[in-house]
Design goal:
Length: 270
């Protein structure tokens, strides 16, 4: 397995605590270590003594949270408190501690869309070279025995980018549903046939199937797939498949995603 260290940013919100619980269960499955990180984001206006005092207070606060989460506390590798900004803290930790996966919480449907998938989470997804698993605020841990993987059959240069998805399928003995939303009545072109064959070969050792969903829009098709098939986890490659372009510019998409009650694994292109 390639998941050995999982990074969980925490800001004491309900959604970040829930993400920590989810990360603890996932880390157990992979026998991985958890690193918790909290960004002070004010180190430039504090003296070094004040920074150290704040770091100690936050370590104690996080330790108190862990006392109530025994399933998590047993696998914590480190608690990182830094005066860096949240974005800089994550990228620093990735490089410094050889992180394999980031797990972050997202706000629930009662919050505005921009808070649900806010600029910070969007920035991390857009710039991180690591897979990111986002967990909705009220989403409990459910072993992902069924995983949906949305594709559009554009050129995938390196199948190795999908290794984490393969690891999840093996770890949980999951069924993988590779689905494509078709918005017009057209036949598969040569590239689509080539890419689907490549994916079929890559996942040949696991339980997988292909589905085509005909719908008027990508996001409506995504919602239709989720409502019908009820996956435990969704996987996407947002930059390649323009996922966040749909989210930010389509009002229907925003409404749909605000009510998606399942974890979303975003996979970088390379």
């Amino acid at each position: 397995m390639r998941i050995k260290k999982i990074l969980v940013p925490i800001n004491y919100s309900d959604c970040s605590i829930n993400a920590l619980r989810y990360a603890g269960q996932l880390a157990k499955q992979f026998e991985a270590k958890l690193l918790i990180i909290h960004a002070l984001d004010n180190g430039n206006i504090l003296t070094s003594k004040m920074v150290e005092e704040q770091k100690q207070r936050h370590i104690e606060k996080i330790s108190a949270i862990l006392d109530n989460e025994p399933n998590v506390s047993s696998i914590i590798n480190d608690i990182l408190i830094t005066e860096k900004t949240p974005k800089d803290a994550i990228y620093w930790a990735i490089d410094e501690f050889y992180i394999n996966l980031i797990i972050m919480g997202t706000e629930g449907a009662h919050r505005p869309f921009d808070e649900l998938v806010g600029s910070f989470t969007y920035h991390v997804i857009s710039n991180s070279k690591l897979p990111l698993l986002t967990i909705p605020e009220n989403c409990p841990y459910i072993p992902p025995h069924k995983i949906g993987f949305g594709v559009d059959y554009k050129l995938l240069e390196h199948t190795s980018t999908l290794d984490i998805l393969l690891d999840l399928v093996y770890a949980y003995n999951s069924k993988l549903e590779i689905f494509h939303v078709k918005t017009s009545d057209t036949r598969k072109n040569t590239l689509e046939i080539y890419e689907s064959t490549k994916l079929d070969d890559y996942f040949s050792g696991v339980n997988h199937e292909f589905q085509t969903i005909e719908h008027s829009s990508i996001m409506s098709g995504l919602s239709s797939y989720i409502n019908k098939n009820k996956p435990d986890l969704m996987a996407i490659m947002p930059r390649k498949y323009n996922f966040f372009k749909w989210l930010w510019h389509d009002s229907v998409s925003k409404e749909l995603v605000q009510h998606l009650p399942l974890p979303i694994l975003t996979i970088p292109e390379k």
